[in-house]
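User: Let's play a game. I give you a shape written as tokens, and you guess the letters that built it. Ready? Here's round one.
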């Protein structure tokens, strides 16, 4: 294979400076409105099992404000004996419990406790 000599154009080329990694970002404002620290909304709670296994009503309200059109809801914390069989809340609880059966972490166990699974 024959070596190709560098021309005057390529010896001072700045092609590498125009790669996507080195290009400067535009001055357009970010669309992201929140950093997503929803577990820390309740003051003094923390994360994992200490957070109570999920978002508080205040955290859900903040998330919905930051994400218009969101259908996020708080946990169904009503005891299963108090729920009407086949009601929307009972179905949500049943679906969550089925979906979260394999959650073994501290946070997962706390969430399942909160939902009465």
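Assistant: Ready! My guess for every position:
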């Amino acid at each position: 294979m024959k070596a190709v000599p560098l021309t005057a154009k390529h010896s001072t080329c700045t092609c590498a400076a125009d790669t996507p990694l080195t290009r400067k970002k535009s001055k357009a404002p970010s669309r992201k409105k929140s950093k997503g620290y929803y577990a820390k909304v309740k003051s003094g709670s923390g994360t994992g099992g200490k957070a109570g296994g999920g978002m508080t009503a205040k955290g859900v309200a903040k998330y919905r404000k930051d994400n218009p059109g969101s259908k996020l809801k708080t946990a169904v914390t009503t005891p299963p004996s108090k729920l009407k069989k086949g009601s929307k809340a009972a179905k949500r609880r049943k679906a969550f419990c089925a979906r979260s059966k394999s959650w073994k972490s501290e946070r997962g166990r706390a969430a399942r406790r909160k939902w009465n699974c």
